Amino acid sequence: MTKIQLVTNAIVNQGILPLYYNADEAVTLDILRSLYRAGIRAVEYTSRGENALSNFTKMVELRNAEMPEMLLGIGTIKNLKQAEEYEKAGADFFISPGFVPEVAEFLISKHLLYSPGCMTPTEIIEAENAGVTFVKLFPGNALGTGFMSAIKDVFPNLKFMPTGGVDTTKENIESWFKAGVSAVGMGSKLVSKELMASKDYATIENETKKVLDIIQSIK
């Protein structure tokens, strides 16, 4: 099995991709532990701060020591330099807010999954023609489930995941899966700034378990 297929299977099987960023290294690692305890085996860490690369490097070290099944992805990749840095750091998969052709070329040549953010059929076609197989619909709350329903038959060979505004309720999650997505990306609705600030890892773990249970009940 290829690395791209391995990552794809992990995300699709759990049906959710949790994503977060915290400047504090200790908080970053404790959140990773709480998600792992909840049953998560693929996580996106977003490259949105000056500590992101060093924190991600520590996440890889922790994963290697304590949770070998965990796949660690990096998000908010906007240029080739970032992709190269995180590839060296050991990222298993890469996610962008938009489609970056040179990033796609670099990562696909390395047999690594690249999931770019797209919000028009033109962008999706460009990504598919570049070899992308897993598309992030972004921003999900702006596009809505109607967009997914309208395009899914045009792109039968692609997997889609909305990110941005996806809620933790059964109604919201179910509406996306009925529209045809393979997974949902979930950030602040799941790992909120408030929970991170209060270091409430138990609630993060419990809420993640609830979402996993909801997804399994509707898939």
UniProtKB/TrEMBL annotation:
Give the signal peptide range. Answer: none
Q: Does the keyword Lyase apply?
A: yes
**InterPro entries, per this entry?**
Aldlse_KDPG_KHG, Aldolase_TIM
State the Pfam families in the record: Aldolase
Which family does the record assign? Belongs to the KHG/KDPG aldolase family.
Pathway info = Carbohydrate acid metabolism
What superkingdom heads the lineage? Bacteria
Q: Keyword set for this entry? A: Carbohydrate metabolism, Lyase
Q: Per its record, what are the GO molecular function terms? A: lyase activity
- Name the species this protein comes from: Epilithonimonas arachidiradicis
Its protein name is 2-dehydro-3-deoxyphosphogluconate aldolase/(4S)-4-hydroxy-2-oxoglutarate aldolase
